[in-house]
């Protein structure tokens, strides 16, 4: 237990915590008595999430592509809540476009949000974890880093970078007490994916046919895996990428 006046055992940051996978992760953390700070751009969604999650949740409206402001963001969190124990780098954006139509700006925008912002936030949070000699970072990858998916070149590059960064961070930071792991979600039923798959029956059939379990996952499936990595149960686990995908990544 920290010496915090509240009963929370730990403090976590979840980026993109107001919707989709981030929402489920934040919900799981709060259920497990972890003080959870959700960060996203949409204040209305953040307010709604906080309303559902209660007093152990707080939110910050912030655009993570605003790199110069990230150090100040992290300093403010530490000043208010004491130390940061867990960081979940969940926020990310996708772009579906034929390869030759992706502009330099398109590509850079995805890389900025999905890679550079993750790096910058992790760097600043790690600075605050080092004096305590412990911490857990969980990055979110994708099936796009496990095998080739057409029309998502920038997203694929960004998520492959996340897996490489996970290993590099783990090797450097684990001797200092900070574990770094990564989850590669398969096809998960969220509002966003439902829209994409329902509008494209051929793609939906392809997804299900190469998923041995024959169904989509739920956001809660990802949340359980993230919680495992963030918990003491994974205290000897670092530098790994865990597919939570119903077997999709090895499906035939």
UniProtKB/TrEMBL annotation:
Annotated InterPro entries: NAD(P)-bd_dom_sf, Sc_DH/Rdtase_CS, SDR_fam
Annotated transmembrane regions: none
Gene Ontology MF terms: oxidoreductase activity
Keyword Oxidoreductase: yes
Pfam families: adh_short_C2
Keywords: Oxidoreductase
Signal peptide coordinates: none
Entry keyword Oxidoreductase: yes
NCBIfam families, per database record: PRK07231.1, PRK12826.1-2
Similarity-based family: Belongs to the short-chain dehydrogenases/reductases (SDR) family.
Name of the featured protein: 3-oxoacyl-ACP reductase
